[in-house]
Amino acid sequence: MTAVAAPSVASLVQSVDWLAIAPPTIAAVVALVVLVADLFLGERRKALLGWVSVAGLAAAALALLPLLDGDRSTFCLETLKGEQAACSYTADHFTLVIQFLVLAGALLTALLSVTGIKDAKNTPRALPEGEFWFLLLSSAAGAALLPASRDLATLVVALEVASLPAFALVGIKRDDRRSSEAALKFFLSSVTATAVTLLGVSFVYATTGTLHLTRIATALTHVDGQFHTLAQAGVALTLVGFAFKTAAVPFHFWVPDTYVGAPLPVAAYLSVIGKAVGFSGIILVTVVAFPSYADVWGPALAALAALTMTVGNVAALRQQATRAYSAVRLLAWSSVGQAGYLLVPIAAAAYTKDAGKAIGSTVAYALMYAAVNLGAFAVAALVARTKPLNRISDYRGLYRSRPLAALVLGFFLLCLAGLPPGIIGLFAKVTVFSAAVDAGLGWLAVVMAVNVVIALYYYLQWTATLFRSAEGEQAVQRIPVPLTAAIGLTAVIGVVLSGAPQMVLRFASTGLF
Predict the structure, then answer these.
(1) Is 486 in contact with 411 (CB distance < 8 Å)?
(2) Is the separation of the CB atoms in 320 and 326 below 8 Å?
(3) Which of 69, 288, 439, 502 is the most exposed place for a label (fewest CB within 10 A)?
(4) pTM passes above 0.70
């Protein structure tokens, strides 16, 4: 009995590659440190928690450097000779690129938050610092885990670890009815989407008998005929939760109210990191797990892309400059439109043999979008310090009062529009457009071209507002160092990438799948 049981017990014990899992682990550990430290620090010293969080996110990002020398996997099943390895965590090139996007974006969000929390201190809407930093770091840890996940169970867990703290962050403004409503709408719609996704995962497991993505891909190639419809339903339903995170239409209705109700740094976080989570999840389940069912998810994603970019851009076009929070609402609807562009290459991957090249276009576009959209939110946070209603009309005359901030915001808006001197934005759009054409999706390329023209109008209109004469005197305050750093970093990244846009595509697409 003992001789038989020993190998069985030994097979359950495996070594953990701590270096591979270091980035999300560091973020999670720092989150716990901040939570415990909050219990012992007085009110005057709680500002230290913000800087500890910034340092923790920087350390997590730096932990990516030792992983650049090759792919690493851990939490793997024992395999028989000749059987394909199945691991739950893989740190490959795709993982590292998305983790860099997530952790760098969370770091910039933290810099914005340091200023936002300080400004709200000693006011009726002061934010609880310890809880805020714990939730932000926890969400970032989940978001960094997701692109490394290589089984459906870990994917769903990572998705929820990234999402649950985000619900609390949206509603963290106490005694603010708008914030509470936004958090409730975000929570209820997300829970519904997650339930549908779990139903899809159960269908996939029922038809394949496994949760590991590579083994699902193999099993789906020879599904029994009577389970074919069940497998198709599982593939479609599994995508729902990730489509919700990307704000793809019709799963987008939570976006404008959530962005307006949340603290501005949290809205910036959701617009970038939330999308990175959703898109990396969609890429993994489609290209890695469901390649044999491309005839199911390919047309579905193409239709979602067309619908999403059209609804987002038309809604952004209708924003009134004098309406309260119109600047944030425009950025919210713009992010919906941008999600449509990001979906195009993923849909194209279903129609081309070189899926890695198509996915590289999405990743390159996501890197560009993350930098410039966070920069736009950073300038919006600057304006909100003197104009809390954050209307587009409040940006009138910004060039006269803050010329550098106006030039930087104008550059970010031109990048999002895809116009020079925002070369990186133009390059990213051309890359996505060519992915659709190469895949034979000419109709989708036409829809994208029309939407780019629509977006030009509201981006240029906002840019022009920056240089118009202001009505009355403009209040000028000293810009805090963290906010200056966030604006400066995003501006430098945008300018550098505009000078060498091909570097982004090469970095994003090398070695993908």
Answers:
(1) no
(2) yes
(3) 69
(4) yes
